[in-house]
Amino acid sequence: MSVTEEPRRRKGRLLTMMPVAIFALIGAGFYWGLFNGDDTLPSPLIGKAVPEFDLPPIEGRADGLSTADLKGQVSIVNVWASWCVPCRVEMPLLNELAARDEVAIYGINYKDRPEEALGFLDELGDPYTRIGADRNGRVSIDWGVYGLPETFVIDAEGRIAYKHIGPFDRRSLEEDILPVVRRLQEGAGS
């Protein structure tokens, strides 16, 4: 091998490895962003009144949900569906929260068949004070929902104070959602 061939070989190996290295860096960046991102996204509705709505109950239940139900107390609104696998993940925590009786929990059932929604609640528990059936998804769109589940904290005046996208876990419930609830309850004097 001549003296000039060795630098060419090294240069060729370097050029061959460059796409692999670039791909690895991009992949590492995506991985870091996926697992180190904030699961709260700013919503243009934060601080604004909840959209006007009046949803009927799920067929087979007594009470629907409307804007008027969300005034006068701090509350949580959870948008869910029976076909939503992540909704199943957070349901035990919602039931636990409801058992504590710390805050009213309301539900918006998104584009669900009544019998499947009721079956979901029978199977996993029903933490909701009232549930509105958003059969066509229009109310959820007005709330800015784009993925299930989504959870909102509503202040006593009926304004959206906080939005959590995706299923919450114990950490996000205790460190993100409930501190907002408690701060609002203290401010409302309840």
TrEMBL record:
<protein>
    <submittedName>
        <fullName>Thiol:disulfide interchange protein CycY</fullName>
    </submittedName>
</protein>
<dbReference type="InterPro" id="IPR050553">
    <property type="entry name" value="Thioredoxin_ResA/DsbE_sf"/>
</dbReference>
<feature type="transmembrane region" description="Helical">
    <location>
        <begin position="12"/>
        <end position="34"/>
    </location>
</feature>
<keyword id="KW-0472">Membrane</keyword>
<keyword id="KW-0812">Transmembrane</keyword>
<keyword id="KW-1015">Disulfide bond</keyword>
<dbReference type="InterPro" id="IPR017937">
    <property type="entry name" value="Thioredoxin_CS"/>
</dbReference>
<dbReference type="GO" id="GO:0017004">
    <property type="term" value="P:cytochrome complex assembly"/>
</dbReference>
<dbReference type="InterPro" id="IPR013740">
    <property type="entry name" value="Redoxin"/>
</dbReference>
<feature type="domain" description="Thioredoxin">
    <location>
        <begin position="44"/>
        <end position="186"/>
    </location>
</feature>
<dbReference type="GO" id="GO:0030288">
    <property type="term" value="C:outer membrane-bounded periplasmic space"/>
</dbReference>
<dbReference type="Pfam" id="PF08534">
    <property type="entry name" value="Redoxin"/>
</dbReference>
<comment type="similarity">
    <text>Belongs to the thioredoxin family. DsbE subfamily.</text>
</comment>
<keyword id="KW-0201">Cytochrome c-type biogenesis</keyword>
<keyword id="KW-1133">Transmembrane helix</keyword>
<dbReference type="InterPro" id="IPR013766">
    <property type="entry name" value="Thioredoxin_domain"/>
</dbReference>
<dbReference type="InterPro" id="IPR004799">
    <property type="entry name" value="Periplasmic_diS_OxRdtase_DsbE"/>
</dbReference>
<keyword id="KW-0676">Redox-active center</keyword>
<dbReference type="GO" id="GO:0015036">
    <property type="term" value="F:disulfide oxidoreductase activity"/>
</dbReference>
<dbReference type="InterPro" id="IPR036249">
    <property type="entry name" value="Thioredoxin-like_sf"/>
</dbReference>
